[in-house]
Amino acid sequence: MLYRLQVLATVWLSLTLTGSASAQTPAIDKGTQVFAAQKCSICHAIAGKGNAKGALDTIGSKLSPDEIRQWIVDAPAMAARVNATRKPAMKSFASLSKDDLDALVAYLQTLKKT
Ligand code: HEC
Fold it and tell me: Of the N and C termini of the chain, which has fewer Cβ atoms inside 10 Å?
């Protein structure tokens, strides 16, 4: 929890100081790597790369960090909650380490409507 607050504070600081999301903090860099390593782009796209049916470019405006986290750790429950019907369905990525999960959430929550 404390770690997450630190990640949030870091993200907030970097956004505030630079006015853009392009100045990447280490956690966010790591999040982009986890996203690539877990092959999320088979079903999702960010910045035009990946599966356009599941664009995540504004996910940080749509979902809270906790909701993003829930999708990653328990996708079937979230899919049931929002009646997601797209196939193939998302499986849970429950085996991610806490660090990888935190970094992935930190990264995704920076993707906001501009
Ligand atoms: C096998 C395909 C598949 C893979 C791989 C996959 N997802 Fe998903 N994901 C889905 C589907 C289907 C949904 C339901 C919403 C939709 O239709 O896009 C979804 C929903 C989500 C949502 C909520 C989207 C929203 O608009 O509310 C997030 C966040 C998400 N996925 C993140 C991830 C991340 C991060 C990874 C990699 C760790 C990943 N997904 C891997 C298929 C996938």
Answer: N
Residue of 71, 78, 81, 111 to mutate, ligand 1, most atoms within 8 A of C-beta: 71
Write out pLDDT tens, residues 7-64. Answer: 656 656 555 555 545 556 898 999 999 999 999 999 999 999 999 999 999 999 999 9
CA of 18: how far to CAs of 21, 30, 46, in Å? 8, 20, 22
Question: For residues 105 and 68, is the Cβ–Cβ distance under 8 A?
Answer: yes
